[in-house]
Amino acid sequence: MINVALAGQPNCGKSTIFNMLSGVKQHVANYPGVTVDKMSAQVKHNDDSYQIVDLPGTYSFSMFSLEEQVAKTFLLDEETDVIVNVVDASNLRRNLYLTFQLLELGKPMVLVLNMMDIAAKRKISIDMERLATLLNVQVVQATASQQVGKAEIMAAIATARKQEDAALFKINYHQFEPYIAKIEEQITLQSTIARRWLAIKALEGDALIIEKTGIKQQLIDEFNDEIHHRYDLDIDQGFARLRYDNADILFHECVKEQRSAQENLTNKVDRIVLNHWLAFPVLGAIIYLIYQLAIVAGYQLTNYTWPILAAVKNWIVSWLPQAQFIDVPPITDFVVWMVNSTIALLNYVPIFFILFALIAILEDVGYMPRMAFILDRLFKRYGLHGQSTLPLVLGGALVGGCAVPGVMATKGIADERARLATILTVPYMNCMAKVPFYTLLLGAFFPTQMTLMMFYISTVTLFIALSVARLITATFLANRETAPFIMELPAYHLPTVKGVLLSAMQRVWLYIKKVVTIVLAVAVVLFVLLQYPGIPDQSMSQLRLSAEKALSDFDHKAQKTAHYQRVDEQQEVFALINLYDQYKAQRMLTSTKEAVASLDQAFLAANPELFPLVRPEDGDAKKINKEVRKLSKVSKKIRMEMKNEKISSSFLGMFGRALEPVSQYCGFDWRINVAFLSSFAARESAVATLGSIYEKGQQDQRAENALASDGAYTPLHAVAMLIFMILTPPCIATMVVVKLQSDSYGWMAFAIIFPISLGLICSVLFFTMATQLGWSGEEMMRYFYLSAAAIAIGLGVSNRKKPEWSVSE
Amino acid sequence: MSIATQQLSLADLSTGQHGVIQGCQAQGALKLKLLNMGFIPGTQVTMIRNAPLRDPIEIGIQNYLLTLRRSEARLIKVTSHD
């Protein structure tokens, strides 16, 4: 196995090169110890297999951000056999700054000039042979966005691997040379990395290298003073200047650039996109477009994917042991619960796919850093950073998203305080899974004001998130390191279809892997908490009594028909009810006449005895069919009652009751408490639980209507629930990623406790005020909204003091 | 016509104005970062635009576009010919 590391500065198109070399066989993992994505792929070329790793982009060997640290430590790793340095051919001069330092490592290297098409368009011609001779390295051209250059790169890697004793590339560092030599003598470390490189980095004061080589800090300090004294030179400034000077010389030797009078595209687009007046409207339009395409259109797409999921569910259920009238085997109960939990989550996949693809397009085009540029000032006021934009958008700023990818996207933020603040605020964004809960409550209590209420809900989250960010950065995070905002605005690029799809697929896969596995684990726990200790014997025997009565009624009526021998045994009756339910479920998914006919045939073939009673043709069969229908309803009703009894006497039910003394102040009874408790696994559970508690076996009544007509709750209760849901903690999956990204259980605990307390306080406060002052539900929501907005604006305005950045030395 | 050389900070340049970097008052990691990004004495910079909310600023340096906040730009001393 030959280890190849792909290194380069940000925006050099390294990922497109990686995609081109690796195809779709990519693996995403984390670098050990940190949460930066490690993309790797195995590639075969002429019977050799290569392990290619795509390193995060880095301008130099500094350790400014987590990603730069990762790239550096990886390159220092002994295992790397060949380094492939990708450079942007249209921006060679600056890219050479890193190239020099990579060459100095003394490992076999290949230089890939990427984006040759753009260079050609800008009339930049590069003398490749001259460049190869001057740098003593193989130079390969590529335009990865058009799949050009793959074979050449692989061939060059194979050649580079074999040349063991190439002469070491050296830059003449003039005054520094004697000092480099002296340090080199001191280094005893055996390593595949050139001793000269280690000496240079040690002289530059690189703490990691000084520690690794065991050179005395005192010696470096002495040299530092001496150089300062003798030449009036700063070491770091001196090295940076010499590298840039050499890049300049090389650039003039090898590159001919015809200054085109014509303004380039990036310039033209930026005039509009970053225009003083147009920037915000354009940003708004883009977010609106994402909303329309991902959320609205994606939701419509789920209309087509849902039947597939439902069919899979029916198929799985058909393999399970069947119910004996009211007795459902525990295994069936359990599997149905798990399947329901899974498909509830998988139902979001189309939406996520579109959302992630659109975000990948924005990233590839180069709009993301521009968004950060536009919003940095606003975010800075609240202790966040321009780079908080992407995580907040993914988390669902305004339109609905998911906190899991949002929190994961915080890794690129160099500012430690803003990074933690972003991790802790993303969960306040509009979680997509909360939407069914909102629509349930709004449909029940505010059918005519739905749009207005939805507007309140979706925009209030941003005010809350900003206020929370400001609060925690001013208090808990006050002493965290901050970093300045220094970011390149890359030239605009057309994204590649492959790159966008790969990125979207990877993110969706991550969602499926992380969310579904964790949520399912929690679903198991919830199942147990909702099932046990079980229904009290007394109520159970009562329910059995009514079940037996229904059965004997059926038997009585069936006796009078010609088909009695088909249903004269109880097992046959149970089978008939199950067949009826099964047929009904499948019939709902069938729409055309032909499909119905073939469905009927399949059923008839499988059940020649009983199916004629499900699709009756003669009068007697119709009579039985009517009774079966009744029986099916009764069994559903009894099962629902059993379920409610079970929940009511379950551990979770007891817990919900135990919380009533507190929760009563915001109008929550134990049933609502149970719904919220179960929403920890996934928000979908809240709707499912609330729905099932209120269904009460009335099949024809929707959960909305059941809730509204129940009489126990008023619109004020509904708003209290909404407020709590807006603020409440993220689901378990989000908690796990918060733990991962903040690397602390403390912050995870904080991310759970703080929002719950805040949610409780707000709902109690507004519920009490509303009941005392006789507000309507809409008024209660409006005042909550206005208070949140006022607090957020107040906090932003009060933060006029210029925040001081500070960076540890 | 008088040609005066003004000593300014990078944040003081007006849109479209060119300047030449004289020095950088930053320390530690920030200084190293700025050096790596090409803020080396003698380098030409151009103020391109302010963000819509006036901060950060976008500049042209070493043939590429860079954004930074005014608080950092103030640490970079430039001269400008008017």
Number of domains of chain A: 4
Inertia-based shape of chain B: globular
Q: Mind telling me the CATH class of chain B? A: Mainly Beta
Query: What oligomeric state do the depicted chains represent?
Result: heterodimer
User: Could you tell me the radius of gyration of chain B in angstroms?
Assistant: 12 Å
Strand content of chain A: 5-15%
Number of domains of chain B: 1
User: Residue-averaged pLDDT of chain B, rounded?
Assistant: 87
**Share in helix of chain B:** 10-25%
CATH level-4 homologous superfamily of chain B: Ferrous iron transport protein A (FeoA)
Mean pLDDT metric of chain A: 84
Task: Describe the main β-sheet of chain B briefly.
Answer: 6 strands, antiparallel
Helix content estimate of chain A: 55-70%
* Main sheet: strand order of chain A: 2-3-4-1-5-6-8
Spatially, the strands of the biggest sheet of chain B line up as 1-6-2-3-4-5
Distance between the termini of chain B: 10 Å
Using the 3D structure, state the CATH architecture of chain B: Roll
Low-confidence stretches of chain B: none
Q: How many beta-strand elements of chain A? A: 10
Number of strands of chain B: 6
Quick recap:
The complex is a heterodimer of chains A (809) and B (82). By secondary structure, chain A is α/β, with parallel strands linked by helices. Chain A has 35 helices and ten strands.
Please describe what this structure looks like:
The complex is a heterodimer of chains A (809) and B (82). Chain A has 809 residues and is an alpha/beta fold. Chain A has four domains: 2-162, Rossmann fold (3-Layer(aba) Sandwich), CATH 3.40.50; 174-257, Orthogonal Bundle (Helix Hairpins), CATH 1.10.287; 264-533 and 653-809, no CATH class; 537-645, no CATH class. Chain A is built from 35 helices and ten strands. In chain A, the strands form two sheets. Chain A has a seven-stranded mixed sheet with strand order 2-3-4-1-5-6-8, sandwiched between helices. Chain A has a two-stranded antiparallel ribbon with strand order 7-9. By secondary structure, chain B is of the alpha+beta class. Chain B has a single domain (5-81), classed as Roll (SH3 type barrels), CATH 2.30.30. Chain B contains two helices and six strands. Chain B has a six-stranded antiparallel sheet. Chain B is globular, with a radius of gyration of 12 Å. The model of chain B has no long low-confidence stretch (mean pLDDT 87). Strand 10 of chain A pairs antiparallel with strand 5 (64-68) of chain B, so a sheet runs across the interface.
